[in-house]
Amino acid sequence: MSVTDRCNFRCPYCMPRQHYERHRFLPRSDLLTFEEIARVVRVVSGLGVTKVRLTGGEPLLRAELHRLLELVVRAAPVEVALTTNGVLLARKADALARAGLRRVTVSLDALDPQVFRAMSDSDHDVGDVLAGIAAAERAGLSPIKINTVVRRGVNDGELLPIARRFRHTGHVVRFIEYMDVGTTNAWKPSDVVPASEILERISSEFPLEALPSGGMGEVARRYRYTDGGGEIGVIASVTAPFCGGCTRLRLSSEGKLYACLFAAFGDDVRALLRSGADDAAIAELVTRVWERREDRYSELRARHPRSLPRVEMSYIGG
Hints:
This protein has 318 residues and is α/β, with parallel strands linked by helices. It has one domain: Aldolase class I (TIM Barrel), CATH 3.20.20. Helices cover 32% and strands 15% of the residues. The chain contains 12 helices and 11 strands. It has helices at 17-20, 34-45, 65-75, 89-99, 113-120, 126-138, 159-166, 195-203, 269-273, 279-292, 297-300, 313-316; strands spanning 51-54, 79-84, 103-107, 145-150, 172-177, 208-210, 221-225, 231-235, 250-251, 256-258, 267-268. The strands form 2 sheets. It has an 8-stranded mixed β-sheet with strand order 1-2-3-4-5-8-7-6, with helices on one face. Strands 9-10-11 form a 3-stranded antiparallel β-sheet. The N and C termini lie close together (10 Å). 40% of the residues are buried.
């Protein structure tokens, strides 16, 4: 569930500055209210949803996010997680944990300050992200997942430093193949560092062995360090797509429901919420979207036309 389309980063793979410098973001009135989001959570919980992940944009830019957490936790018996770039996490982790947040994933594409700024295209400091991770750990939001998008020639030299930094911490780094999300990031296959190469590079210094799958819906292939240093994950959605096991629905900040990260259109939940529809009508829409889904873009990528319109990742979360 995206809570805002705004972000304080301009990562070239998600919100490239040249396309978003004069972008018109959604007015506040178009965003789902906290009460509307909590209502949707209650409805989908009745359909079997057990986990809700809050995303953006950057979700910590949404004012009083802790209040949304309180409403969601009261609305349904779901586990609530958060994906964030971590810059604002140090000052907000305690309030979020008290409100009911249980898990946090922090995007961190580099430890080297210059590479970090190249990957985020921002003036923010990597130290702020590391401080956010430490604050989340103190607040009890551990173990923390660290998401690292790997782009050849930009931050692939950070694989070993990041692996080394989070070994023996209990946190799990998930290295993600660079994807052609949206239509603005000028993706090329040559930018992708395949999962096999990522594993080879890390294992050359820290030997790894495969772990069993976490089950249906698990997007990362898991590996553990043979010396007991913890585990990592690799998300290989380019070289080893997992469309057939996808268990995710995405709700944009303005209430559009998408069955895929690469979807071209979404179904309007907000219109139902604001037209007086009852919960049964909302449940019917969600069920219909889920049952008719045929999205498998990653499996068809090799012959998929690049001109096909699709929603930007910043709009519905990663």
